[in-house]
Prior knowledge:
Elements: H1 2-7, H2 9-24, H3 34-49, H4 53-58, E1 67-75, E2 80-86, H5 88-100
Amino acid sequence: MLEHFCECYFDLSGPILCPVLGSITPLFIPNSSIRPIRMIGLCVSLITFLYPPVPRIQFDPSTAKSQFVESLRWLPYENIHLYMGIDGLSLFFVILTTFLIP
């Protein structure tokens, strides 16, 4: 399961997992130091902003199908899968969202 996840990490899972991991990191910093927490938040949001240009360069606008499709067996015993993909409209929403966060 982990091998399949690492193959598709840079397409769509990266912009999702980067803020999640970045929000866990400040839990280990004392509350009295606000500045490092803000710097971690800014750095994580800028790293997240760097993910969408890669799919934008490889995106094929001539097709209406979903691209960069990821399918991950999330809970195999319940037959539940995580399925993600980008079409032309959602690509620009992903870029806009990662641009507005920093």
